[in-house]
Design brief:
Blueprint (H helix, E strand, L loop, with lengths): L1 H12 L4 H17 L3 H14 L11 H13 L4
Helix pairs in contact: 1-2, 3-4
Length: about 80
Amino acid sequence: ILLAQTNAILRRMEPEDEKIQRHCNFVDRWLEWNSREEIWARTMSSWKNIVGDEDPFLFYLDEESRSRLESSADELQDY
């Protein structure tokens, strides 16, 4: 989450810098890729079940990615 927030700030601070925007685009792709991995589904599950937060909104993901991640988190078997 911190990386996504930092990326969003950096993108807004230097909108005309092509190298900065290229880096930010890479970080966006990396965050999207991570959202499909089991570790993030487990993190989402923990936020909901352990921390008790029903709305861990991940602003940097599109609706489809958020929905897929939430579904994966709901399907996890608790140990």
